Structure formats: structure tokens, C-alpha cells
Amino acid sequence: MAELVFILADFFSAADADADRSAGAGLPALPLLETLFARAHRSTLPSDWRGWLAARAAGAPAGRTSPDASLAQTVAAAFSTDAPAGQASGGLWLASPVHYFAGLDSVFLHAAGLLSLEAAEQDALVADFERVFRGSPWTLRSIGRRELLLAGPAIAAGGADPAQFAGCDPSAGLPSGLGAATLRGLGAEMEMWLYEHPLNLERRGRGDLPVTTLWLWGAQQNPGLSATAGLQPPMHAQPAQLYGSDTYAEALWRLQGGAARPLPAAFDAAAVGPGADAIFMYSLLQPQGLSAALLQFEQSWLPGALRSLRRRRIAVLRMLVGTQLYTLRWLDLARLWRRRTPWWETLA
User: By CB atoms within 10 Å of each CB, which of 57, 80, 281, 329 scores lowest?
Assistant: First the structure.
């Protein structure tokens, strides 16, 4: 029987979400999610969902994920026909367009500040980067996804996942490591370049957030294949079908010779058939906030998923959120003695 996997991406902690609400006052009730938390078997992953998914992809018959590859190298290998400058002997970074805003005493990454540029906007940015930074060791290019790719000299530095800092002071996620000063200097140069860039003038004119800079990250080694050896799923007869949009997840599937499908508006049991596993990428980084994203997941996704498990249309339901993996099988539904706790306490 098939497996059904939900990856709740772009989650880090609910401890600061709705911090002004005491003891859950005003937060939505999520009984299905709390039931899943209570009855499922929980394990802690060595890294976030990317490590687990990389191990899952490596276990597929056509899996070609290198345990030594960084996130950026994996993306470059999947979306490129030619090896980019810097891949063999230099460095590669994911370059995410972001928007900062000034607070009273600090700069913050806007809650909706991870920007997805149109293809024409990315092409214009890449062309102008080549003009402005000509003669430098840096090369920028578009891959048709939210992130761009930056190639340059081999520098042992990189930033954290920018989604971790949405709505927060981003300073703790900026490049760190031996060469951090070089990357931070490049980031400052890009801020000056983009400040009155024609692209941003157009974006402001139509009410879109302008691009403050490109957030450089993903240079770290893929944390999944070696670290999750004990949690690696068994070899599957065929790759699972991936639904949703995430640059790294899509890269893993492209390296298997597959492709992601768009995320539907709600769970459809027809997506999971005998021997056909399904993995759904559901981002919790939504304009309405974490509570609203989880409420939508509760209402549109969990009822059908739990019904499929009860009717034994699927063998197992897995959910990855942060560094936690929840595994629920049919027999686990009978663990009625497991007390439910408020979801915001579980996710804190």
C-alpha cells in the first residue's frame, strides 16, 4: 500500500507566533491536527525536512543525490545543462530576493518578504547584475524558480534559510563562517545596486514589495543523506509523486527524472493509488500567518487524509514539521488513551 506524506515547509517554531495571545486565546481549534500529534509516533530528525527528503530521493531507483552536495549544488545540478562557473572549483549559493523594512531600532525581514519574481523580472535582474558586476568573480543566473543561483570564489560561508526569519530581525541568519565578511560585503553592494533599480520602481508603482537584496544561503553540505541514515525510508519500487513548489524539493525530483505537480487546493484521495506514494509540500509561510495556514491544512487536507487511512487506502500517513517526523498507521488510530494537547504547545 502507498504512503502519504505531508511536509509542512517553512516552519521553525510556534513559540513566537501570536505571542500576544495568552494560553491560546483567540487561536483556532485544530482537533484533527491535535489527534494526529497525539496518536502518531514521533521521531526527531537530525536536520529539517530537506534531509529526510534527500534520503527518500536517494532511496529511489533513479536517485542521484550526492551526500557531499550542498543545497545550492543540488539545485544547480538539477536545473542546469551546463556546469555553472564556480561549481567545480568555486562556490555556489542560492540567492533569494528579499524585502527588508526598518523598525524602531532594527531592520526586519518583511513577513511576506521572500519574493517570487516573474521570469522577465529575474532575466532583467540577471542581465543588469552582469553589467554592474562585470569584472568581479560573481555570476548570477535564473533557474525559473523563486531562488536564483550565485556562483563565485570558494568561500566557506553562507546564510541560513531566510524563511526562518520572516517577520523578524534577520541578522542572526546572515552569512557566517570564515569568508562571511566577503559575502556580507557583496550583500551590501547589492543593496546599493537595487535601491533605486528600475525593477523596484516598477514594483513599487504596482504596489509590490521591492527587492532590498539577495539573501545568500544554501552553501552548506546537504545534511540529509549521512545524518538521516537511521531514518532513511526503504527502497521504493517507484519514485513518489511530488506536489507543490519548493526549489530544493523540485531539484531532488528532477535528478530522479521526475517533475513536481502543482499543489491542489485540497487533498484528493485519487492522488494516492496502490504503489503510488504521494508527497505534498505545504508551506506554512502564508500572508495570513501560521494560525491561518494550519487552519486551512486542518480543514482542506487532514479530513481526507485521515479518512484514507481509516479506510486503509494508504498504509501510513507521515507528517514532517520542523525537525519532527510524525508517523501514523491504521492501528495507531486506536490509541485513544493518548491525550491531546493544544497544537500551539506541541509546536512551541
Answer: 80
